[in-house]
Amino acid sequence: MTLTLPSPASPLKIGTRGSPLALAQAYETRRRLGAAFDLPEAAFEIVIIKTTGDNQALIAADKPLKELGGKGLFTKEIEEDLLSGAIDIAVHSMKDMPVAQPEGLLLDTYLPREDVRDAFVSPGNSSLAKLAAGAVVGTSSLRRRAQLLNRRPDLKVVEFRGNVQTRLKKLGDGVADCTFLAMAGLNRLGMKDVPATAVSVEDMLPAVAQGAIGIERRGDDSATAELLAALHHAETGQRLAAERAFLAALDGSCETPIAALAELDGSTLRLRGEVLRPDGSESIAADETCAVEDGAALGREMAANLLKRAGEGFFDWR
Ligand SMILES: NCc1[nH]cc(CCC(=O)O)c1CC(=O)O
């Protein structure tokens, strides 16, 4: 089969949300595809798609995200455009992606993973350990909230929603003493002047798939599949297979504090997983190794063990 390359006359349509981070990820995808096949920028068209999650009025209403459309909040419209053929590929932060995709779509191409760690961001404090008793933390992440309260029950957590820029603005306005962001987002946005310090994964285990970009396509689009095969980073795929199997087996909704990180050392995969009570009062963690190809099985097994240890009602709110 001969490879059909996109061209300025027939560009590959790259669908993305319009936030600065989403755009940076779409540009990185365009750059990597261009480099792999020696194509000009005009061989690609970036198509910005507004999702329910981008509707400021809805988001500002401060309703739980679950009530606003749950898992598909930032992806539904993009996946509809992919299925209809309005776009050819969609670029996503894998951290935000449900474990299963709609019928007809495949999400199995991953770019090399960025820094997986969370960043502690505070204009007045150099590290989490130096944060005064009772300090105010702004975050909308259930995982970060539960992990923080687990280690520092003295801290006060306030809701902090919006994109990276919005949250930094709130911090500047003094709404909170510090916040947490993904290092990957800061790096991709080139935000070097932000007062950020990376938090070790021992102190704060990251979200499943944090730092990874995934590219989605139609299952029957073999021309696009061939293009994407040149971009796929196998190691990132193996790591995400373990982490996403763990998440899937926990039935992780956006309402459950879950963390996981898979790392490779030669042909060995190490998977760390953690589930927490939403109020941080209890954390259950595991740390296991297996052969790289058994990562997904280990993820499922670890999830089953943690659920058993957690028992009934563990994830109930307070
Ligand atoms: N939920 C929003 C989101 N989705 C992906 C990233 C960062 C980039 C990444 O983890 O790949 C962020 C922002 C953040 O957590 O600071």
Automatic annotation (TrEMBL):
Protein family according to the UniProt entry: Belongs to the HMBS family.
GO CC, any one term: cytoplasm
Domain annotation Porphobilinogen deaminase C-terminal: ranges: 240-307
UniProt GO MF annotations: hydroxymethylbilane synthase activity
Pathway, per record: Porphyrin-containing compound metabolism; protoporphyrin-IX biosynthesis; coproporphyrinogen-III from 5-aminolevulinate: step 2/4
Pfam families: Porphobil_deam, Porphobil_deamC
Protein name: Porphobilinogen deaminase
Keywords, alphabetical: Porphyrin biosynthesis, Transferase
Domain spans labelled Porphobilinogen deaminase N-terminal: 12-225
